[in-house]
Amino acid sequence: MRKTVCVDLDGVLADYSSGYKGPDVIGDPLPGAVEFTRALGEFAEVVIYSVRCSPEFRPGSVEARVRPVREWLQAHGFYFDRIASGEGKPVACAYVDDRAVECDPQGLFGPELGMAAYQTALARCRLLARLKHTKE
Q: What pLDDT, on a 0 to 100 scale, did the predictor assign at position 97?
């Protein structure tokens, strides 16, 4: 059984440098993004997730929420197994997101990080909170 890796759409696979332009307006694919998803697919189930597919962001059926994302991914040749429909955080071994803030105080990469993990995460959160083109 392959492990699942969740990959964010905007800012990871699609250009998001201009910010949000509407529910059906997805930026151009970022260089290397298609190849990235294909490489992931060699060892993991690839789940695409986006706030665009959440019921709070886009009311309607699951199909209506995911259709524009699926069509965009297929049109550009991305590899994916499924698209998360915005009903909670998908279970995965890894999450790839341009807004991710790693915090590992228990030490997946070594327990010596401890409190430093919180300080590093806090600094990154402050930086992200100051950006003008956040996805809120």
A: 93
CATH 1.20.59.10 fits 3-100, yes or no: no
Q: Residue 107: phi, psi to the nearest 5? A: 85, 50
The pLDDT value recorded for residue 136 is 46
Q: Is residue 45 pLDDT above 70, yes or no?
A: yes
In Å, what is the CA distance from 1 to each residue of 4, 7, 39, 45, 80?
9, 19, 17, 9, 16
Query: pTM for this structure?
Result: 0.85
The conformation of residue 29, written as its DSSP 8-state character, comes to: B
Q: In this structure, what DSSP letter does residue 53 have?
A: G
Instruction: Name the residue type at position 122.
Output: L
Delimit the domains of the chain by residue range: 3-100, 101-136
Q: How far apart are CA 69 and CA 12, in angstroms?
A: 14
- Write out the H or E segment, with its range, that includes residue 47: strand 44-49
